[in-house]
Amino acid sequence: MFADVLLALPLGTLLAFTIGPVFFVLLETAITKGFRAAVAFDAGVLLADATFILIVYFTTSSLLREIKDDPKLFFVGGLIMMAYGIISFIKLKKDFKKTIDNKENAHLVVPEKVNYIALFIKGFLLNFINIGVLGFWLGIIIVFGPKLDMNANRILIFFTSIILVYFAIDVIKILIAKKLKNRLTAFHIYKIKRSISIILLVFGVFLILQAFFPNMLKSIS
Known about the structure:
The protein is mostly helical. The protein has helices at residues 2-16, 21-33, 35-58, 61-68, 71-99, 116-128, 131-144, 152-178, 186-212, 214-220. Helices cover 80% and strands 0% of the residues. It is globular, with a radius of gyration of 19 Å.
């Protein structure tokens, strides 16, 4: 059991520092909305990961290999992510103009009402539409499943340990990012949110490219 936990530690750490849309949105949520909001978002992300793990465990690996490389899934996921980035970018500009009446109060940060359920759903969907996450968990079960003798209890401990390490490191990231909140002006927060919208747009384009040019992107990586 202890050996299975140790085996999971580096994977949980790797997952926590994987650079992707979730990584950036988590930090942005911590900076702009606070600790509890970021934890709610992260809980949604973890639920999506747990869902993928269950899918991987209870589905045949041959079928999953076909699904994870299906261009249509990359295209749909990329399109959703692109649309979210574009809509967020446009909405942010409108909201910022409403928030800032003139240059004199541009330094003020207007408190936002936080919808924790919406953030939870946002975290789940943002992680779930990224088909690459399914590929990651499929690779983990293929590589480490035999090492765990495909024993249900050992696999449960292994994956639970990965998720807990991932969450613990995310909490540390959230606490560090949260410290910046009181030092930011409304304009700074607007810039951060706008940057995240652009990042989501870029990741959406990348997923769509992966749908049309999978071999090209594999050769680049």
